[in-house]
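The methods section describes the discrete structure representation at length, but only in general terms. The central task, working out the structure tokens from the amino acid sequence alone, is never made concrete. Nothing conveys this as quickly as seeing an actual entry. For illustration, here is how one protein appears when written out as sequence plus structure tokens:
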Amino acid sequence: MRLVRWCVVEEGPRFKLFTMILIVIALVASLYAPTQTLKLEQKFFGGTASPHNTGYMGTSELVTLLKGLGCEVVIAENEQDFINALSEGGLGIIIAPDRPVPADLSSKLLDLFKEGRASFLIADENTTSNYLIMTLTPGLVIDGRAVFSVNKEKLAYSPFPSALMATKLNETLTNPVLTLVDVFELRLNWASFIKPVPQGLTPEWVVGHYVIGVTAGVIDFNNNGRLDAEDLKFESIATQGKGHMYEDVAVEAVSRSGSKVLIFSDSFPFTNQALTPQDSVYRAYVTQLFRNLVKADRVVICDFLYRTGVKAAGIPYHPAMLLYFAASAFKLLDSVITSAVSTNSFLAVTESIAIILLLTYLISKGLGFGNYRTVEPSPVEEVDIIAETEVRRAVLTGEAVKKPKEAVKGLWDVLNYVLRQLYGFGVEDVLRDEHLLKGFSEALNTDPEALKSRLSWLVKVSRKASGKAHLPVIISWKRALRKYAELTEQVLEPLGYTIMRRGGLRGVESVIH
């Protein structure tokens, strides 16, 4: 009984003793332990059209607008989520992706399209979306070259051409310009245009397509990012005295099952920058578009084709701050132990030993904390980017590369890395598989034999640079490197990527990172 009475009476002073010990530890820690930084990392989509990006290029405002129209909005974070959501029906939206839809996923989306369960809205001024577009509607692709509004007298250009965009169709008229009903005049932003592919055939499930947007202007025919006499010469040949040359910038393709594919060669009207003002003409256009032409009650937005980064933030804290939580834990522990030892004298000794061990642990650990691990890029990716940057600088400035063989090997690694990230195969896989070669040549819109010859040369020179082959004979590695870079660019550019940083295309760093 004396033990029980002692435990109850001494409960308060014992907790005060614990608290005093912790205060002493905190004071010592405040003098000797440095302030730590808690590193927090957050995934972000800066510079992309992701629905999670609230910046000017993002599409978070489009999500808000669609919900305001009564649409059920699903954001698909991976391929399987995209397929599962569209299997239940709805409109799949893909806006300015950083990488193409993989071939196997494109095939599954085509099945949903043919079955009439899913329609699609694709908006992209680059050629990145062409593989999916050609899968759904063979015969149509986005060209990738820019359309400019021009002042021919001053030979000046603007990358913001004016376009007539419709939200209804009058299918009885044949003139593309006159078929536009409920027309909005919009300023586009570095827009391209939609063109037919001569060798493309309209499949039996597609009954036709209708123009819902046109623009008049000059095309950047040589794709150098500026207006020059070469562009004007090509325009005069194309128009042949007919006045302005109208280019299709928005097209609707309809299937026999009732599914639609809406293609826009400019993503700007769907971005936050265009939609944020409540009185924006773009907001009025997109609202009418979904009410009149799309009429979708359920929307599934793709969010897994964008490059992502990690944003790190540091929160300062001091180890002594943790002792507050330790004091609360001690209070709870004290009440539990008091209740337990009140009926067992052996536990009193065990309690004393446990408290000594616990305080020893706190004193040893309370004066310092280990460093947090940091995420760093792999050495291989660093080497690839350095090689690509050095080659680009050499090609653009004409300066010599100190080790051209190493630069060739670096370009070879970059090209294979990009292809594997986009499609899951490398250059040598294309050469070994005739079916793969044919499909890849269609994605690049080039002749299979010409592509095979180009890729074969790249393989041979890379093996020569690596010391794995004696042929071909290379007299000047400097000239070989320049040709190697040009051929690499010819493969990457139709995919929407570049090692030369030309206007309107994305650098390969966006794939590597």
User: Anything to note?
Assistant: The two ends are 71 Å apart (CA to CA). The mean pLDDT is 77. The CA atoms of residues 220 and 226 lie 7 Å apart. The chain has 18 helices and 18 strands.
